[in-house]
Amino acid sequence: MKHEHPSPPIHKVGDDVPHESAALHVSGRATYIDDLPEPAGTLHAAFGLATVAHGRIRKLDLDDVRHAPGVVAVLTAADIPGENNCGPVLHDDPILADELVQFYNQPIFIVVARSHDAARRAARIAKVDYEVLPMIRNAAEAASAGNFVLPPVNVARGDADAALARAPHRLRGNVLLGGQEHFYLEGQIASAQLREDDTLHVHTSTQHPTEMQQVVAHMLGWRQHQVTAECRRIGGGFGGKESQSAQIACAAALAAWKLQRPVKLRLDRDDDMAITGKRHDFDIGYEAGFDDDGMILGVKFELSSRCGFSADLSGPVNDRAIFHADNCYYLDAIAVKSLRGKTNTVSNTAFRGFGGPQGMFAIEYVIDDIARTLDLDPLLVRQRNFYGTDPAGPRNLTHYGMAIEDNVAPALVAQLARDSDYEARRVAIAQFNEKSPVVKRGIALTPLKFGISFTATLFNQAGALVHVYADGTVTVSHGGTEMGQGLYTKIRQIAAHEFGLPVNDVRLTPTDTSRVPNTSATAASSGTDLNGKAVQQAAQAVRERIAAFFGPLHNVAPQDVVFADGMVTADGVSLPFGAVTAQAYRARIQLWDSGFYATPKIHYDAKTMKGRPFFYFAYGASVSEVAIDTLTGETKVLRVDVLHDVGKSINPAVDIGQIEGGFIQGMGWLTTEELWWRPDGKLMTHAPSTYKIPAASDCPPVFNVKLFDNSNVEDSIHRSKAVGEPPLMLPFSVFFAIRDAVAARTGGCPRLDAPATPEAILRALGELPALGAAA
Amino acid sequence: MQRPIQFWFRGRLQSVSEVSPTRTVLQWLREDVHATGSKEGCGEGDCGACTVTIGELDDKAPGGVRLRAVNSCIQFLPTLDGKALFTVEDLADKQGSTPKLHPVQQAMVDCHGSQCGFCTPGFVMSLWADYESRANSGQCPTREEINDTLSGNLCRCTGYRPIVDAAQKAWDMAPAHIDRNPIREVLETLSHLPSLDYSHNGQRFQAPHAVSELGTAIAAQPDAQILSGSTDIGLWVTKHLKQLGNIIYLGACEELRQVQVHDDVLEIGAGVTLTDAFAALVADEPDWTEQARRFASVPVRNAGTLGGNVANGSPIGDSMPGLIALGARIVLQHGARLREMALDEFYLSYQKTAREPGEFVRALKVPRAQPGRIFRSYKVSKRQDQDISAVSAAFALYTDGDGHIRDARVAFGGMAATPKRASACEAALRGQPWSEETVRKAMDALDGDYAPLSDMRASSAYRSKVARNLLWRMWLETESMRGAVQADVRLPA
User: How many helices (H) and strands (E) does chain A have?
Assistant: First the structure.
């Protein structure tokens, strides 16, 4: 019985289809770049790293490195034939530092050796003499020095100062919001091989194959069509392989070109964490004016971020923070000042949410302060300040001039508050706290609204190829990358749906710049929205041609031909799909096509920061209940309830996976994940032994996650909504529940910085000196 | 002629020579035999992507073979000698035309337990080791038990819930346990081979079977690196890229792997794994339970030894405060000569111990529970599981009939350059009634005992504050036990 082959189930769009690689994942047969058989003669590369945070290289003595066992070559910036840059926007991101070192552990040379081990060993024995320069450590130091990677940006609506002056209540404050290491389980890796006639193929673990193709071409002084970038799957990205995979791809390509040998560069975990950028940490200043009911009358933010030594994606990241400083709330008079601090630290980059979480955290912190100041339930203050639900109403225009047409936050939050028994639990917690001096409990319900689209309008495009072979099997290519989010799974469902086929009849090719060109990063939660539409269009074109061939054979109009359950049916004549495609092939019908999609409606003026940068919004909310130990600052998340809006889900299991995974990742950011630098600028939390992402036991013992019954008001793919990033913001409720528990002891508005480590909590409780106070 | 390293792999006896003694099991799998199912995520035994399962002879285990998950990225290949190695590629039933997934694997598929998939082989192997450990009982694990099983596996995509679901769902399917008989037969044959004495490029790896042999070998080569579970020394190679020189491995010596329960002490051999050592400690003194659960992770506890933790002498080793508070003694051996000392006297200064050249840690003697002794140990870290403590504390109070403290032993980790007793705090407790007033004074005394460092785990101020508060927590717990305090004094587990 155990080896029978049941006919595969016909999965529909909307079904819980398992991940397309699940059976491969669980049996160790899913191949990542380091698992691919190495071409004969493959060499291994490693970076040599700087040991000062800011300095000039006086002397770089690499003799010992060159003569180390197994070393084949040592390459420096001087070996780069084209541009020594891997920056995606500005050209300020050297592949190898040339004379000027701008952060501790910045790559300054590449060792190429016969083994990974030999390369790593040799990379450590360079003799470098530095002239040490003064360093700028963090956002606050950068702001006071006026040291920025990009000019400050101001966005305002109304007269915030006047509104503040008129307001019956005012408050102001500061809070620190920490950065975050991506900790994708597969570290950065690229494997490059020269091919004939000045061409190069690179396997790269990336979210952005086209950009890898471009930067490698520029680095070699080549044109784009000489380079092919390929990626089947990556072992996690989370934004960390959007731009930051470029340095690794360039280094492997440079060595392969120079030595005329295949070269693989796989970063050791510690090197990866030391070299690659992270989520921007923010130093948030705020001022708010409000009335007796907690209605916000005016608010001012200074959002100061640590960008690191180069711009990377810091411009759009900080822009998105500005765009999300409203979260779900109508802010009539608002002024946001955004400072993009240049620091002698690694260049911070995209990370799930892309600045949005930082902007949203700022307004949530203000709302929490307002509620505590007025002794109101923070949920009530949140609800009172929500955007309206009438798209043309007076409270529906964002501070960047976009009307909100799909506001489900009020309904979603009301449903969640009811289903989670929020009110009664809040009362019970207050009663518990009265009798509990050591352990304090807290609860919070936080909502989210997240804008979907790349704010840079041009990236909102995608292409696809759909091949139907004569036997009726289908191969799909598109520009998105599979990083675990289930993109390939959903694409498979979308293509199978158009042909009425089981998903097993559809395969996806590795994402490859020679198949689909000019692709955008798989980022901004847009993978399925963009690529799904392009694939759908291509599949529909092929289906229509099959229908136009098959229908008339049976005296049926093409539009009346039915593709379902693996069969093609026209007026009672029903044939297997493969039989029809075989006939169509013989009749010389084109059985493949391309598709292209450009998101409609969006526009945005980067100068004024006004327009409609987003196609639509995704919504969600969560309630968390926590307990804290006031002796040690340790916490325990007791229960979490989530209600999240994915429109009409293409795959509820995949979407719930994104929601839960995003929740836990965001919870880690706000609780246990702390980046810590030594005074000389060296990052000391550069391995999982010192940098603590959530483990299995951190998952809340009660974790109720539901999808909100909704449909996208916009014509998105099957009326679904993007789900990659928004859930990252759900665990704001964990942070504010912790603050609620702290306030149960302290009263007032205790300052709690994120991450809320045990130490941060003890400090918020007033048990430790405030930050910056003399120790 | 030297014999090769021999172990069970892929259903047969595998012989390996021509590899460096510090070649890791993961390097051998991925680079030498191109079995790439097991992944490298961190190279330091913290993420679990490399998890494999090791089989060893054990009379008490089902079928006479005990299976346990370990991190292959920090295990040296010669330590596999005489054992069995299983990887993710071994699990599916390949009898038919298409492989049939193992229940643990199928449940992971059905529960949507993989996303990017990179950590998945490691999770599967941890779950499989647990599944096999329940072969006799057939008992589906609870969610808490699964969290413990998975304490050494990090996933950045799923948030774990579906993986925990899968661990339970596997038990709804038709059982699929391995046949351990052929494995046991081969391992029994291997157990009769002479001790491994393996050299490669002038580097020697000895794994003596008899403790006498071990004593002679170490005495003769005082510079040799003594290796036990390699959960720390493995990182010296994979992270610090250190050349270890000749290695003498304790793990093949059966006599060192015994726990002897005497009337007054537990004698724990230096080769006893942390898993087994903690089981013995918990059985005698239940307050070890939390330390046992939170010490590193299951794969690290399965490989690492209590003797190694103690011998290493790290200021943040979590076993030492408790052992010191209980008055444990360390047994050292040089050749055939044994000596012992109080464990707290073993630590001289940062990473310096009283172990002399040619000497090795033979065993630990831990005084057993006794009437009037109250023992508490606490660990505070950023994350509950598999984290290194910011502060680790242990208190042992010896009380007489009327509630006076006859003697007190207090020790902390994370507060000084070595695991260290708090002598001023002890003095403030000794001879006093166990009362709020005494505790307050003893808390103040602690301030004079330590001047902790600030680092990435915690600031000096935090450590000092928490050290005081942990003594207060113990007071509250004793008050709670006698009903004087009604409210919770600790977070729910």
Answer: 19, 29
